[in-house]
């Protein structure tokens, strides 16, 4: 089992979801985050005062998958999120020790679904 965490541009979320649904990956957690990478933010001037905006809005998607779904999930995220520009995001694949489904008491691969 693996935990896939992807940090993408907010405007690419719908495209990523569509690509994931095509691969029968429909269970995910999505939340808004802020961060900076290679972009390092930008400067904005308001009423003569310059403000440094170095934490940019992003979206984080977390998906727990069985091992046989890792490659197709990662490829779907890349297909939906890739624009070719700096700031497209990152994908992290982490080991997932255990998973439990609360409703049915299932464990492991069966709990992920």
Q: Counting H and I runs of at least 4 residues, what is the number of helices?
A: 3
What string, H for helix and E for strand, traces the elements in order? Answer: EHEEEEHEH
Largest sheet: 4 strands, antiparallel
**Terminal Cα separation, in Å?**
11 Å
Query: How many whole angstroms does the radius of gyration measure?
Result: 17 Å
Instruction: Just name the CATH architecture.
Output: 2-Layer Sandwich
What class do helices, strands and sheet pairing give? alpha+beta
Largest sheet, spatial ordering of strands: 2-5-1-6
Helix content: 10-25%
Q: Report low-confidence residues grouped into runs of 5 or more.
A: none
Top-tier CATH class: Alpha Beta
- DSSP E strands, number: 6
Strand content: 35-45%
CATH topology descriptor: Alpha-Beta Plaits
Shape: elongated
Average pLDDT for all residues: 91
User: Number of folding domains?
Assistant: 1
């Amino acid at each position: 089992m693996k935990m896939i965490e992807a940090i993408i541009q907010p405007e690419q979320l719908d495209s990523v979801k569509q690509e994931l649904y095509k691969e029968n990956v429909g269970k995910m957690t999505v939340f808004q985050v802020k961060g900076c990478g290679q972009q390092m933010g930008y400067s904005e001037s308001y009423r003569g005062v310059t403000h440094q905006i170095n934490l940019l809005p992003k979206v984080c998607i977390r998906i727990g998958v069985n091992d046989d779904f890792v490659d197709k999930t990662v490829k779907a995220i890349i297909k939906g999120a890739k624009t070719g520009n700096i700031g497209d995001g990152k994908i992290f694949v982490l080991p997932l020790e255990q998973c439990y489904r609360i409703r049915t008491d299932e464990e492991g691969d069966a709990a992920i679904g």
